[in-house]
């Protein structure tokens, strides 16, 4: 696994200005009930563990806002943040029993950690507890085994 740096920001839009998530090339905007709009997300594969926001990353987010919802370029920015996403070479997670006895893996989800959290929890908990998996879920778990690398 290796780090992929991500940058995001939020805007304060008018309440209910955006009623659903919108996606575009490299950018998405997620509305919150209070009018806050979360804008993401930059992926910097070559940043290593370099900390902090970058002008280029923030400009890329601004270009995404302009492309997706031009009116939002006038909304005030509220927060800007960055972090590291654990990533694997194929950007798929590592799931299931690890290479050491008693080690279980549920990591490396890259940009999709929030989206895959429920399925990851279900597969991992079932496996750890010895609950038989459906053939589909067993195949899914096996496709993300660490030995694929």
Automatic annotation (TrEMBL):
GO molecular function list: oxidoreductase activity
Residues annotated as domain FAD dependent oxidoreductase: 2-125
Pfam family membership, one: DAO
UniProt superkingdom: Bacteria
GO cellular component: cytoplasm
Keywords carried by this UniProt record: Oxidoreductase
InterPro entries per record: FAD-dep_OxRdtase, FAD/NAD-bd_sf
Name the record gives this protein: FAD dependent oxidoreductase domain-containing protein
Species this chain originates from: Prochlorococcus marinus (strain MIT 9303)
């Amino acid at each position: 696994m290796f780090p992929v740096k991500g940058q995001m920001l939020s805007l304060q839009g008018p309440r209910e200005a955006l009623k659903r998530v919108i996606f575009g090339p490299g950018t998405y905007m997620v509305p919150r009930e209070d009018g806050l709009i979360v804008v993401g997300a930059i992926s910097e594969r070559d940043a290593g563990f370099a900390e902090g926001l970058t002008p280029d990353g923030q400009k890329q987010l601004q270009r995404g806002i302009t492309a997706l919802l031009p009116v939002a370029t006038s909304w005030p920015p509220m927060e800007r943040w960055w972090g590291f996403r654990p990533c694997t070479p194929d950007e798929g997670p590592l799931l299931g029993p690890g290479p050491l006895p008693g080690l279980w893996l549920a990591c490396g989800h890259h940009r999709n950690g929030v989206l895959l959290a429920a399925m990851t929890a279900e597969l991992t908990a079932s496996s750890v507890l010895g609950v038989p998996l459906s053939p589909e879920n067993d195949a899914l778990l096996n496709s993300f085994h660490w030995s694929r690398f």
